[in-house]
């Protein structure tokens, strides 16, 4: 399915990862950022850890086809419909033979908003999920950590870039977006995925 992207594949063991730094040109990426900032109903959700509720350090919005549900950190998300900008981006992914039916949007207001270590390995995603991650706005460090060897890989995700994690990536690697105090600009990240019933 992703054979046409082979020239964009990264050399990372136990993974299938593609990175397209200029998937959207700067003008198009700027336009999508502004539209999504205003189109999506951003919320600061909560997760439960060890019986206590904690507000997540970013804003989120969950969208997809009718009836699509997704559960992570014991929180079930009911998908809202696709916004016009999200539909346009999904059409661009369809041109790469990707067929997502949902997207989790994260809005990082500045460098103090973050995402902790995790894997996208929920049962609804299947055994070998394909996650297509679109970055808009401030460049941020995206860190991968191998679960067995603790090897780390750092990718600086550019404005308008597309990162695709496929194959066994979610089995062998965790990933995170750490805090960066020097980053003052916001970032929107969209992780398109296929949810299976």
TrEMBL record:
<feature type="binding site">
    <location>
        <begin position="50"/>
        <end position="52"/>
    </location>
    <ligand>
        <name>substrate</name>
    </ligand>
</feature>
<feature type="binding site">
    <location>
        <position position="118"/>
    </location>
    <ligand>
        <name>2-oxoglutarate</name>
    </ligand>
</feature>
<dbReference type="GO" id="GO:0008198">
    <property type="term" value="F:ferrous iron binding"/>
</dbReference>
<feature type="binding site">
    <location>
        <position position="106"/>
    </location>
    <ligand>
        <name>2-oxoglutarate</name>
    </ligand>
</feature>
<feature type="binding site">
    <location>
        <position position="175"/>
    </location>
    <ligand>
        <name>2-oxoglutarate</name>
    </ligand>
</feature>
<dbReference type="GO" id="GO:0035516">
    <property type="term" value="F:broad specificity oxidative DNA demethylase activity"/>
</dbReference>
<keyword id="KW-0479">Metal-binding</keyword>
<protein>
    <submittedName>
        <fullName>Alpha-ketoglutarate-dependent dioxygenase AlkB</fullName>
    </submittedName>
</protein>
<keyword id="KW-0227">DNA damage</keyword>
<keyword id="KW-0234">DNA repair</keyword>
<dbReference type="GO" id="GO:0051747">
    <property type="term" value="F:cytosine C-5 DNA demethylase activity"/>
</dbReference>
<dbReference type="GO" id="GO:0006307">
    <property type="term" value="P:DNA alkylation repair"/>
</dbReference>
<feature type="binding site">
    <location>
        <position position="193"/>
    </location>
    <ligand>
        <name>2-oxoglutarate</name>
    </ligand>
</feature>
<dbReference type="InterPro" id="IPR037151">
    <property type="entry name" value="AlkB-like_sf"/>
</dbReference>
<dbReference type="InterPro" id="IPR005123">
    <property type="entry name" value="Oxoglu/Fe-dep_dioxygenase_dom"/>
</dbReference>
<keyword id="KW-0408">Iron</keyword>
<dbReference type="Pfam" id="PF13532">
    <property type="entry name" value="2OG-FeII_Oxy_2"/>
</dbReference>
<dbReference type="InterPro" id="IPR032852">
    <property type="entry name" value="ALKBH2"/>
</dbReference>
<feature type="binding site">
    <location>
        <position position="108"/>
    </location>
    <ligand>
        <name>2-oxoglutarate</name>
    </ligand>
</feature>
<keyword id="KW-0223">Dioxygenase</keyword>
<feature type="binding site">
    <location>
        <begin position="70"/>
        <end position="72"/>
    </location>
    <ligand>
        <name>substrate</name>
    </ligand>
</feature>
<keyword id="KW-0460">Magnesium</keyword>
<feature type="domain" description="Fe2OG dioxygenase">
    <location>
        <begin position="99"/>
        <end position="196"/>
    </location>
</feature>
<dbReference type="InterPro" id="IPR027450">
    <property type="entry name" value="AlkB-like"/>
</dbReference>
<feature type="binding site">
    <location>
        <position position="187"/>
    </location>
    <ligand>
        <name>2-oxoglutarate</name>
    </ligand>
</feature>
<keyword id="KW-0560">Oxidoreductase</keyword>
<feature type="binding site">
    <location>
        <position position="191"/>
    </location>
    <ligand>
        <name>2-oxoglutarate</name>
    </ligand>
</feature>
């Amino acid at each position: 399915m992703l054979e046409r992207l082979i020239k964009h594949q990264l050399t990372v063991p136990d993974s299938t990862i593609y990175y397209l730094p200029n998937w959207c040109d700067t003008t198009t990426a700027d336009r999508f950022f502004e539209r999504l900032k205003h189109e999506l109903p951003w919320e600061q959700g909560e997760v439960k850890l060890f019986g206590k509720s904690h507000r997540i350090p970013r804003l989120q919005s969950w969208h997809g086809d009718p009836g699509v549900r997704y559960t992570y950190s014991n929180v079930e998300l009911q998908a809202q419909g696709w916004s016009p900008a999200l539909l346009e981006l999904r059409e661009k992914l369809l041109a790469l033979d990707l067929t997502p039916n949902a997207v989790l949007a994260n809005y990082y207001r500045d460098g103090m908003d973050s995402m902790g270590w995790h894997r996208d390995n929920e049962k609804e995603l299947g055994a070998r999920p394909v996650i297509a991650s679109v970055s808009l706005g401030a460049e941020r460090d995206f860190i991968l950590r191998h679960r067995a060897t603790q090897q780390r890989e750092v990718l600086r995700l550019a404005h308008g870039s597309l990162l695709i994690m496929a194959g066994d990536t979610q089995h062998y690697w965790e990933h995170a977006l750490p805090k960066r105090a020097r980053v003052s600009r916001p970032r929107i990240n969209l992780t398109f995925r296929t949810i299976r019933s």
